[in-house]
Amino acid sequence: MNCKTFIILSMTGVLFLSCKKQDASQYLPQQNQTPEHYPTTVMQETNVILENIYPATIRGQEDIEIRPRIDGFIEQINIDEGSVVRKGQTLFRINSPQSIQAVETARATVTTAQSNLNTAQLNVDRMRPLAEKNIISNVQLETYENQYSAAVASLRQAQASLTQSEATLSWTNVTSPVDGIVGSIPYRQGSLVSSSNVLTTIANTSNVYAYFSLNEKELLELLESYPGNTQAEKIKNMPMVTLTLADGTVYPEKGRIETIAGVVNTSTGSTNFRAEFANPQGLLRSGSSGQISIPHTLKNVFEIPQKATFNLQDKILVYKVQGDSVVQTVITVEATPDGQRYAVTGGLNSGERIVTDGIATLSNGKKILVD
Description:
The chain is an alpha+beta fold and about 375 residues long. The protein contains five helices and 20 strands. A hairpin with a 2-residue loop joins strand 15 and strand 16.
């Protein structure tokens, strides 16, 4: 009985140790794993066109505030918000009683001055024959001639006042100084307005200006990128720029940088730029926003897909192939406009090979098969 028990216990122990050894083997590293195939690419130098993007504000080539030149009540509004107007077209009519009264007074003054001149002329004509016959002295004649000259001057002064008052009265007809589009109209018929009030704004948008800014470092880097001895020469050598609208669409017309402000804003540390765009279809409106894209070329760099990279502690890395295994390598990059690729500016050399896909399954030193 004791012998049977010993045999049974011995067999149970062997089975237990066999199972335990089998379970533990599952957690041991597999030293003889078969290397997997991964797609790779060899680094070859190329030139890559990138874009610097800046927020921009769009203004009409001419944004003119329309103000009345006289005080009065708005008598008539001949346009509506968003209307297209031509130069010289009447926009508003102002009722100005003071201006009407000034014209009537000036006309009366001219009539009086003309009558005084006529009387002075008669006196001279009457006295000149008498002076020639020595019936009166020449002093008396000269007195009448002086009165005539004074009457002439008074008439000219009255006529100038009439011209001025008529010009002032013409200001009751408010016209557009340029072709353009009407902005908002804050005042309505019957409103009392003066020269301090803006009746509306006329924006000439046949061409538009896009205003954007760069900080001092970006400005210096940009100017150093283009040939020329002066800023004006560098601006002429800058490439055409692209405007992206608020909805993400790219405006079809290319623009050109025209001016760079000569003063750096001390509060923001930035310098203003202005780019001009043609607007034949009237798509761009003054006051809208967008983004300016300035292309620049990186020479002798490597272009790789972003999916070939991964981030580690704020650094960008790739898996570089060394023999039959991979090693993690830190690189410096700039993103391409499509957001799918990187231009590698440091960390890799020509002829080196990197893994381009499937990097989530890789680890430092892992052996691979190169496709």
